[in-house]
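This part of the workshop introduces the protein records we will be handling. As an example, a complete record with its sequence and its structure tokens follows.
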Amino acid sequence: MIQKLLARFKRSAVTLSAVQQSRLELLRHKISTACKTDLSGDRIVVVDVETTGLSLANDHLIAIGAIAIHAGRIVYADSFDVLLRQEVASDKANILVHGIGGTAQRTGLPPEDALLAFLEYLDGAPLFAFHVTFDETMLRKACKKFLGIEFRHTWSDLAYLMPAFFPQYAQNYRALDDWIAHFSIGNDARHNALADALATAQLGLIALRSARTKRITNFKSLQDMEKAQRWLRSTWQMS
């Protein structure tokens, strides 16, 4: 038992170069749960990840794709796409899902540099995602393992915001594919992190337009709406 605990502790040790440590120190104050974002003008980053599988406990981060919304519009020039180097490539079934081959996985950017680049790109902006729990958990695991930090950031989940704004579809639409099909959002590269982030960002624009009609002006109010929708969905499931 003691040997297992010691082994876990050893695996959690993080060794960064002086340059990497300097980059990380500059970023620490920008990883925050505080959010005062103005929906009408401030930057929001939409993120999607690809992984070795769907297990939150056992699978790992392979790729991060992100794109920013500025003042209610998607800015294509403000995007991010990175592949994290894997010691061992994921299995063939997983590769068929995301299309990232074994050679590409083994020659990606060192995970420490990939994650630092993502945090620098993020620059403290709040995040949109669809089914936040998965993306957030994978990012938190990677940041803890490779950078030794807790990635506790401000998120809002479009998987709950969209049903809150469009309750007539809440019972039937659960997956990202349901919503992008309904709004005729194209995505020719499904399960590519950047392509999925772009499709999610288009949903984000729809959510932001709906927020304006309800006079919702800040990110915190979106989070409150999300919490209410989570509670509502839990009551549906219990009934």
